[in-house]
Amino acid sequence: MLQYIKNKRVLFITTKNPDYIRNTQEIAFLEEHASFYTVIASTHTSYPKRLLSIYRRLLTVPMNEYDTVFLGFAPQLVLPLFGNSKTWTLSKTSLSPCMTLYAATDASSVLTVT
Question: Do 100 and 90 touch, CB atoms closer than 8 A?
């Protein structure tokens, strides 16, 4: 996983609150290894509102500014946004039982942790 993060511009997306323990660990990892990172998360207590907030923010993100998109908690709720995009045709590679890499046609990487 480090090869997709180290010295890269990373967009981290999670559908769980940012202070969730796994998210804090993944953000700390990005802070240590990425050259630049942005976190898209929401603190809404309502899960549907949290998803809508994240989807809304994703519609305005200039994806060409990132080398890697790291999908944290519940990637299956975010991945369809990329899979249906004309610029994001993804090929799937399992890195481990709990991690999948989706390589995009624009040479970006999308990491998902399940």
Answer: no
